[in-house]
Amino acid sequence: MTVIVNPFDGGGYTLAEMTAAIQLLPNRYGRLGGLGLFTPEPISQRQVTVEQIEGELRLLPAVALGAPATVGSPETASMRSFTVPHIPHNDVVLPEEVQGKRGFGLAAAEDPLAQVMMRKLTRMRWKHAQTLEYMRAKALHGITKDGAGRTVYDWHAEFAITAKSVDFKLGTETTDVLGKCREVLRHVEENLKGESMTSVHALVSPGFWDKLIVHKRVEEAYKYFEANAGLNPLRQDLRTGFRFGGLAFEEYLGTVTLSTGQTESLLTVGEGIAFPMGTTDTFRTFFAPANLMDAVGTYGQELYAYQIARENGTGIDVYSQSNPLPIVKRPALVVRLFSSN
């Protein structure tokens, strides 16, 4: 009997090597990732304990056995333990994907296995990146969801937090839109409570954007926005950044396809979300270790990947997983924007 040999064995395609390979692939999806809003923070456990102190959510670190424990604060309102979501995604390299097919950029050769594997890892990377963007967008709304659109945690409900909303009433010509912007800014500034920021950014849906730029109190400012810098909305698209009243408005048209096949917008239709930029400890994505023996006792990474050849020689299974928990540690700094008319 012929022994089936995994062509990737001995070539460095271990858990560590494939994990490094998939993480080096570029992330082509995600405005929130591009903004650098949710700072990655690895943790060594699959569960995190969150305590609420004066409206702020704090995670308690794991310590070595016998080490001094963290000391609770008398202002602690509640403390809960949460499991970090586990998101696995698998694929397979089949013989027909290699045999008899011309390789990309090659004249008349079979597609090298390494190229097939890289294409698999690239697609898997994009899917994980899109899922993470979706989870981060929902975290801005105070909710942790999985790729099926199911609510894993509602942070407002878990800790009895009331979300701040500002009605811009963009359907009324006399609405003081500048005053609404100041209301958002002052709310964020009042709730920093020791945190710092550089500016306030607002991601808004197309419906909110379209109402904003045609409002009588905004129209002229939009028309001549940064004219001195050579920008003119009559010639250029300013949806990537329009500053008004101290807020940097940006249209955020993101839609994902859930694992159920349904589509969902990253922002609520007709609404927006405002949040501070340049903070030090407000937005975090906690990454737990992989559900693998090799990851026991280590700190989590954004992505893991590895491969195992099937015993019957019919293919090579490619496995990947991510274990992220995006969280807004100061929910009061995020403001929902909407227009009731």
Write up what this structure looks like.
The protein has helices at 15-24, 31-35, 113-140, 155-158, 177-190, 206-213, 219-223, and strands spanning 39-42, 47-53, 56-60, 76-83, 87-93, 143-145, 151-154, 164-167, 199-204, 242-244, 247-251, 255-257, 263-265, 272-277, 283-287, 304-309, 316-322, 324-328, 335-338. It has 341 residues and is of the alpha+beta class. It is globular, with a radius of gyration of 24 Å. The chain has a single domain (15-64, 74-338), classed as phage-related protein like fold.
Uncertain spans, ≥5 residues at pLDDT below 50? Answer: 1-5
Strand content: 25-35%
CATH topology: phage-related protein like fold
Biggest sheet strand order reads 8-19-14-9-11-10
Biggest beta sheet attributes: 6 strands, mixed
Globular, elongated, flat, extended or rod-shaped: what is the shape?
globular
Name of the top-level CATH class: Alpha Beta
Named CATH architecture: Alpha-Beta Complex
Number of strands: 19
Structural class, by secondary structure, is alpha+beta
Counted by DSSP, the helix tally is: 7
Separation of termini?
A: 75 Å
CA-atom Rg in angstroms: 24 Å
Q: Topology as H/E string?
A: HHEEEEEHEEHEHEHHEEEEEEEEEE
Question: Topology of this protein?
Answer:
Blueprint lengths: L14 H10 L6 H5 L3 E4 L4 E7 L2 E5 L15 E8 L3 E7 L19 H28 L2 E3 L5 E4 H4 L5 E4 L9 H14 L8 E6 L1 H8 L5 H5 L18 E3 L2 E5 L3 E3 L5 E3 L6 E6 L5 E5 L16 E6 L6 E7 L1 E5 L6 E4 L3
Parallel strand pairs: 1-15, 8-19, 9-11
Antiparallel strand pairs: 2-3, 2-4, 5-17, 6-7, 9-14, 10-11, 12-13, 14-19, 15-18, 16-17
